[in-house]
Amino acid sequence: KMGARFLGAADYLLRSQRLYRLESAYGIRADLVDAVRRMDPSVRTGGRSESSYYAPAAGEAESGPPSTHFGGWARMALELGSGSVDRPGLRIVRVDPPRLGERAPRLVLAE
Fold this sequence. Notes:
Layout: H1 9-39, E1 41-44, H2 50-53, E2 67-70, E3 92-96, E4 107-110
Antiparallel strand pairs: 1-2, 3-4
């Protein structure tokens, strides 16, 4: 590790920018965890709750794919709708390929 006195201006700015990005990502992650916890998600399928989803009753038939039910509310979160008319869902419009050497898409547009 080098002390701050050996850093040039470019090194100092680069390290500051990296630290700022890490701190911002941590803050965003903390906000997401808080919002999801407040939304109180649970898995449901055919009217059954999460506890009965894994152990269906004898003779009970499956009635569709599982869905997520949100029992809570958060000021900074919004439940995405489905594809139905009364609850329009999220539609991905465009996904650009990642830049060279990166894994994440360069741009994702949704409406």
